[in-house]
Design brief:
By secondary structure, the chain is of the alpha/beta class. The protein has 11 helices and 20 strands.
């Protein structure tokens, strides 16, 4: 009988010249228990994670709730757009990004905070090629389970990833524009074009065309391998080390090509709308959120990051100063009011994303039930650029929500943000008890 069979998540419909991937159906979430008399039992939806980063901190007085416990009906100004979602998210205060602090390295708060946020590691202060930080928590998860989806992870943002040069008081631009890191020396450049993200998720192409593109990439890798062997014997120890780091990335591309062979003959999901046009970082932000939601819903990936750019400034808010300038407000009332308006807009877009996930069915629940969505910054107070009391909003993921929690009151020292990352990683099925600067699992 058909109800005794399990539909694969990769089941497709074929006919009339069309191949269409199916969304999550109840039949995909049922399995037969023969020992229990062929009674179907529920199969949990896969766990997912999404991280949203804002680069300049916040105005603490405009986002902090007055007292711990249940969220009040009237939220602070920055959080006001989330008023209808209080049952779906929590506010955590008192978390610290210790490795985003100077720790003897002087200036460079923005670059350091970005690089340390998901890695929990102190970035080496350099604007040269000898960059080093750490593997980010999203990429640890991607390394463990990225082969289960077409895309191991999805990195998107407002500003293009800069891969060279100095940007912030002696720190490389790589640190300032990348929060996702595959290794201590390899960032994961983000995609800033909605059109290209759409193409990655829904783009078509025949099997022959995809096979030809992969063959061309393999031929390039073969050539690189030969050149590597020939050149390596002629280099000194330092250059051999640098070349080996480069070739490690080449080998990684090879592994990804091999992995892609599993997906070559499986169709991409059907696109729910036409290919979008690129406009600007502000206008594209809602679309970026929607593309991430669709990527998660179609199980194209289970891991996503979104970086809101340092130049992010909606024109319709009537703000005169640039975003970064507003973060150095010096307690000027007009600048503070403008920064609050800007941060309120950012939170509103995050709220729409959370609400969107809550509307998408996923197994026996919603996509929000199975997706942990964290919104925050590596800086707390925008004006002082301190890295304590970070603004952290946590939604979904099966957590009990609807409250404000002051975690620093529960212990004598500041609680590392990495403790929360350990908990999120474990929810994803990653067997880890420590990460970055963690001191334990978040309770």
């Amino acid at each position: 009988m058909i109800h005794d069979k399990v539909l694969s998540r990769r089941t497709v419909l074929k006919g009339m010249g069309v191949t269409l991937a199916l969304p999550w159906l109840e039949k995909m979430g049922m399995q037969t228990s023969w020992a229990a008399g062929n009674t179907p039992i529920a199969q949990a939806a896969p766990n997912r994670m999404a991280y949203v980063y804002i680069p300049n901190g916040v105005v603490p007085s405009a986002w902090r709730v007055a007292t711990e416990g249940a969220l009040p009906a009237k939220l602070p100004p920055i959080l006001a757009p989330l008023a209808d979602l209080t049952k779906d998210f929590s506010i955590l205060s008192g978390l610290t990004a210790d490795k985003a602090r100077a720790n003897g390295d002087g200036g460079g708060d923005h670059a350091r905070a970005m690089a340390a946020y998901l890695t929990g590691a102190q970035p080496r202060k350099t604007d040269g090629a000898n960059i080093k930080v750490g593997v980010s928590v999203d990429q640890i998860a991607a390394a463990r389970m990225g082969d289960r989806t077409r895309l191991a992870s999805l990195e998107v943002g407002a500003d293009s990833s800069k891969m060279a040069g100095g940007c912030d008081s002696g720190y490389s631009c790589i640190y300032e524009s990348n929060m996702s890191w595959r290794s201590s020396t390899q960032p994961m450049p983000k995609e800033v074009s909605p059109k290209l993200i759409f193409e990655r998720l829904f783009g078509s192409g025949t099997d022959l065309e995809r096979a030809r593109r992969d063959a061309e990439r393999k031929s390039v890798l073969d050539a690189v391998r030969d050149d590597f062997r020939e050149l390596n014997v002629r280099l000194g120890a330092d250059d051999q080390r640098k070349l080996d780091e480069y070739f490690t990335s080449v080998r990684d591309v090879e592994k990804r090509l091999e992995l892609r062979q599993r997906w070559t003959h499986l169709p991409k999901p059907a696109a729910p709308f036409g290919k979008p046009a690129n406009r600007n970082p502000v206008d594209d932000l809602p679309l970026m959120y929607e593309l991430i939601a669709l990527a998660l819903q179609t199980d194209s990936t289970r891991i996503a990051t979104l970086e809101v750019g340092g130049d992010f400034l909606p024109q319709n808010l009537g703000i005169k100063k640039d975003y970064h300038g507003l973060s150095h407000h010096g307690n000027d009332p007009e600048s503070i009011a403008s920064l609050i308006a800007l941060e309120r807009y950012q939170v509103a877009q995050y709220g729409k994303f959370v609400g969107r996930l809550a509307q998408m069915n996923d197994g026996d629940g919603t996509l929000l039930d199975s997706t942990t969505v964290l919104f925050g910054s590596g800086m707390g107070d925008a004006n002082s650029h301190r890295n304590t009391d970070l603004p952290i909003f946590l939604a979904g993921g099966g957590y009990k929500h609807g409250s404000f929690r002051e975690v620093s009151r529960e212990v004598k020292h500041k609680v590392p943000l990495c403790n929360l990352f350990v908990d999120i990683a474990q929810k994803m099925g990653v067997e880890t008890h420590a990460f970055g600067s963690s001191t334990g699992r978040f309770a």
